[in-house]
Amino acid sequence: MKRLPLEGIRVADLTMMWAGPYATRILAEMGAEVIKVESPRAWDNLRTLIPLPGVEEPWNASYYFNDYNRDKKSLTLDLAHPLGRETFLQLVTHCDVVIENYRADVLDNLQLGYDVLREARPDIILVSMAGYGKTGPERDYVGFGPIIEQMSGLASLTGYGDDGVPIKTGISYGDPVAGTAAAAAVALALIRRRRTGRGAFIDLAQREVLSTLIGEAFVAASLRSETPVHRGNREPRAFAQGVYRCAGQDQWLAITLRTRDDWHRAAALLAVDPALPGDPTDHDVIDSRLTAALASRDPQEAFELLARADIPAGRVLDTVVIHDDPHLLARRFWVELPHPRMHPWKQPRTTWRLRQADPAPRRHAPLFGEHNDDILRGLLGLDDARIAQLRREGVIGDAPINPGVG
Amino acid sequence: MEAPAPEPLPLEGVRVLELGGGIPAAFAARWLAGFGADVVRVEPEDDRLTPDEAVYLLPGKRRVHPAPSELLALARAADIIIEDGPPGALAARGLDPAALRAARPPLVIVSITPYGQDGPYAAFPATNITAFAMGGIMSLTGMHQREPLVTGGSQALYLGGLHAAGAAVTAFFGALVHGEGDWVDLSLQEIMAGMLELYGPRGAYEGAVSVRSGNHVRAVWGLYPCADGFAGVCALERQVPALFALLADPELDEPRFRDPLERPNHDDELQAKLYAWFGDRTKAELLELGARHRVPIGAVVTPRELLENASLSERGFFDTVETPAGTARIPGRPFLGLGWRPGQLAEPVPAAAVLAEWSPRP
Question: Is the ipTM beyond the 0.85 threshold?
Answer without folding.
Answer: yes
